[in-house]
């Protein structure tokens, strides 16, 4: 260490040895004499004889840090303190005492030490022996007593007391933190953190982990959240981004050499509440995959398919492993990763907006602990103006001198505009007006009129034409000629015949099958027949009704097996499994056979994709073949 040592023996006659403290007390050595001096040897100096001096280490010192998951708390709420102590040097501590004397406003709830603490009054203490070099922490959970009044500042101090292995002196380090008490119900909804993967790092190589895809807070901007780490010696919050952490683990921690593992608890707080997740850090000799160039943000038009990039151009593995990929964070956007790792984007029909999507590259070798690299990008779908949709209006009959009304909202639809913002022109011989969505017609005399209704959104114009037969005042509104009544009778006969046949066969006709993940993501859809273009909105309505119903139903899974909804003239039957649910849209009677088919299909799906479902990353391509399973129900 650059220090010289000399030992002068002033009286011989025995062996010489013992502990030697050098300089400012930071170096501890054991000295053994190269010989046993005779009794007549006096004042012999052994200088710089390092072969006889064993340097143990820099004497261990300890730094103490304390953090809280909140800066504001209310009566009867809980506060989580992280008591961190860092042992610096190369040797373990012989004994460590952690002491926390709680202020009277707080009461002990639990801790993460794994041992039973000694609690005496408001004092809590933990005793550990042979504590290795590195960062250690205890998570202490306490409760604010109900009588504490808002405006109170609670100050909590903890101390670390320790002996090292070669010095019997007593050392103390301490740290203090303050929490302000506020009124109940003023803190909003606390943030959550979940889904953070375990991380593989190479020793002495900084690794940046973006936590933004795994953190959610409904009422606090992400830039106002705070991260608290259980190991501040090897993990730190990036100075440029409050939701990125930098990991840097050494080759050696004490006598432990890589490869080794360490746990890291990550707490996210909005100042009023918090959430935590503990992950495992694998410190290896192999390097994890690397992001060699950042992915660019993606922008494409509504209702389009966009091929963006090939992931192999952006991620590499220094060890030469063939990487695999997945994406997370999609709600309305679909990401398809092709076999050559090119990426295709699309979105829900008529949806536009922005989503943050995370692409993850990983080494599929389990011996490398599925080492990962990731990149987060913004994907924006630009709105595109769709033309209005106008459905056909049947010919009508009315009498002159009377108001005849038509509710245009049943026939006119625009996904991009409200009805009130559309321009509607009516070409007719009648006096007409529109009140809200109601078209009012009034004729002065009998006639046959051809009406054309044109709808414009400012860019597109669509029209529909129908006929109006206007009778005299008081005339019947319906006259049945043979030409009109025969098709009607044929329709009635067909309907009656169909009804009789259905009753006779007691047949169930399945029109649609939806296979949906438990978070509401559509995995696969099978239909009996193709629909006109405007029926896509009906399909979207069905799916929304199913998702809304199941959202609440999954909260009490123990009591929920099969449930039925009505949707217009059709019925919807829903059943759920461990990770997904199946919904069928049908006509007829829901007999036991239908329920058996649903259970069989869902069981087949969940058994076939059990491993994927357990930790699904949102990539629909992992469920190839799912549609074939549910299509069998239509046969």
Write the SSE topology:
Blueprint: E1 6-9, E2 17-22, E3 27-32, E4 44-47, E5 53-58, E6 61-68, E7 72-73, E8 78-88, E9 93-101, E10 106-111, E11 118-120, E12 123-131, E13 134-144, E14 153-164, E15 171-181, E16 192-193, E17 199-202, E18 207-210, E19 215-216, E20 226-229, E21 235-237, E22 244-247, E23 252-253, E24 256-257, E25 260-269, E26 274-284, E27 290-291, E28 298-301, E29 306-310, E30 315-316, E31 324-328, E32 333-337, E33 342-347, E34 353-362, E35 372-382, E36 389-390, E37 396-399, E38 403-407, E39 412-413, E40 423-427, E41 431-435, E42 438-442, E43 447-456, E44 461-471, H1 482-505, E45 509-517, E46 522-527, H2 535-553, E47 562-567, E48 570-576, E49 580-587, H3 592-608, H4 610-614, H5 626-631
Parallel strand pairs: 7-15, 17-26, 28-35, 37-44
Antiparallel strand pairs: 1-4, 2-3, 3-5, 6-8, 8-13, 9-12, 9-14, 10-13, 11-12, 14-15, 16-19, 18-22, 20-25, 21-22, 23-24, 25-26, 27-30, 29-33, 31-34, 32-33, 34-35, 36-39, 38-42, 40-43, 41-42, 43-44, 45-46, 45-49, 47-48, 48-49
Could you explain how this protein is built, in words?
With 635 residues, the chain is mostly beta strands. It folds into six domains: 57 residues, no CATH class; 121 residues, Immunoglobulin-like (Sandwich), CATH 2.60.40; 93 residues, Immunoglobulin-like (Sandwich), CATH 2.60.40; 93 residues, Immunoglobulins (Immunoglobulin-like); 83 residues, Immunoglobulin-like (Sandwich), CATH 2.60.40; 124 residues, 2-Layer Sandwich (Beta-Lactamase), CATH 3.30.450.70. Helix content is 11%, strand content 46%. The protein contains five helices and 49 strands. The strands form 15 sheets. A six-stranded mixed beta sheet has the order 7-15-14-9-12-11, with no helix packed on it. Strands 46-45-49-48-47 form a five-stranded antiparallel beta sheet, with helices on both faces. A four-stranded antiparallel beta sheet has the order 6-8-13-10, with no helix packed on it. A hairpin with a 2-residue loop joins strand 11 and strand 12. About 7% of the residues have low confidence.
């Amino acid at each position: 260490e650059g220090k010289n040592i000399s030992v002068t023996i002033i009286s011989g006659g025995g062996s010489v040895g013992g502990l030697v403290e050098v300089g400012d007390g930071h170096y501890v050595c054991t000295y053994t004499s190269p010989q046993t001096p005779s009794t007549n040897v006096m004042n012999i100096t052994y200088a710089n004889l390092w072969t006889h001096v064993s340097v143990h280490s820099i004497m261990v010192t300890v730094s103490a840090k304390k953090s809280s998951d909140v800066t504001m708390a209310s009566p009867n709420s809980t506060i989580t303190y992280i008591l961190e102590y860092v042992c610096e040097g190369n040797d373990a501590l012989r004994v460590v005492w952690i002491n926390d004397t709680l202020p009277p406003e707080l009461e002990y709830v639990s801790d993460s030490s794994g041992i039973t603490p000694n609690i005496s009054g408001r004092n809590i203490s933990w005793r550990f022996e042979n504590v290795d070099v590195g960062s250690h922490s205890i998570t202490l959970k306490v409760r604010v007593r109900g009588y504490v009044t808002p405006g109170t500042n609670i100050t909590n101090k903890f101390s670390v007391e320790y002996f090292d292995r070669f010095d019997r002196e007593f050392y103390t380090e301490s740290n203090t933190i303050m929490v302000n008490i506020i009124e109940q119900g003023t803190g909003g909804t606390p943030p959550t953190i979940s889904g953070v993967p375990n991380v593989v790092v190479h020793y002495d190589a900084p690794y940046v982990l973006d936590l933004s895809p795994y953190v959610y807070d409904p009422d606090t901007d992400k830039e106002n959240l705070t991260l608290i780490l259980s190991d501040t010696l090897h993990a730190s919050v990036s100075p440029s981004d409050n939701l990125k952490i930098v990991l840097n683990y050494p080759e050696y921690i004490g006598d432990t050499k890589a490869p080794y593992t360490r746990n890291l608890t990550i707490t996210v707080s909005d100042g009023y509440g918090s959430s935590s997740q503990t992950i495992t850090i694998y410190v290896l000799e192999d390097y994890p995959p690397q992001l060699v160039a950042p992915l660019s943000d993606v922008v494409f038009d509504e209702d389009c398919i966009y091929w963006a990039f090939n992931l192999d151009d952006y991620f590499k593995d220094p060890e030469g492993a063939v990487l695999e990929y997945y994406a997370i964070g999609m709600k309305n956007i679909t990401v398809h990763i092709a076999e050559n790792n090119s990426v295709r984007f699309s979105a829900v029909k008529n949806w536009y907006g922005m989503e943050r999507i995370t692409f993850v590259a990983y080494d599929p070798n389990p011996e490398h602990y599925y080492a990962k690299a990731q990149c987060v990008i913004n994907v924006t779908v630009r709105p595109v103006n769709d033309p209005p949709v106008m459905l056909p209006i049947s010919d009508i009959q009315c009498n002159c001198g009377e108001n005849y009304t038509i509710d245009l909202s049943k026939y006119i639809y625009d996904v991009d505009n409200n009805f009130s913002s559309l321009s509607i022109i009516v070409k007719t011989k009648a006096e007409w007006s529109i009140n809200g969505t109601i078209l009012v017609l009034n004729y002065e005399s009998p006639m046959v009129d051809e009406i054309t209704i044109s709808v414009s959104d400012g860019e597109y114009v669509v029209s529909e034409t129908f006929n109006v037969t206007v009778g005299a005042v008081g005339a019947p509104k319906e006259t049945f000629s043979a030409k009109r009544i025969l098709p009607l009778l044929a329709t009635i006969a067909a309907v009656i015949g169909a009804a009789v046949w259905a009753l006779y066969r007691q047949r169930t006709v399945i029109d649609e099958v939806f296979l949906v993940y438990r978070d509401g993501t559509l995995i696969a859809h099978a239909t009996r027949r193709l629909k006109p273009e405007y029926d896509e909105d009906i399909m979207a309505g069905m799916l929304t009704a199913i998702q809304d119903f199941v959202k609440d139903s999954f909260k009490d899974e123990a009591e929920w097996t099969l449930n039925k909804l009505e949707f217009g003239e059709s019925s919807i039957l829903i059943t759920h499994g461990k990770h997904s649910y199946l919904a069928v849209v049908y006509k007829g009677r829901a007999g036991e056979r239908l329920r058996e088919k649903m259970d069989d299909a869902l069981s087949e799906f969940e058994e076939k994709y059990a491993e994927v479902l357990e930790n699904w990353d949102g990539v629909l391509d992992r469920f190839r073949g799912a549609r074939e399973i549910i299509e069998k129900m239509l046969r």
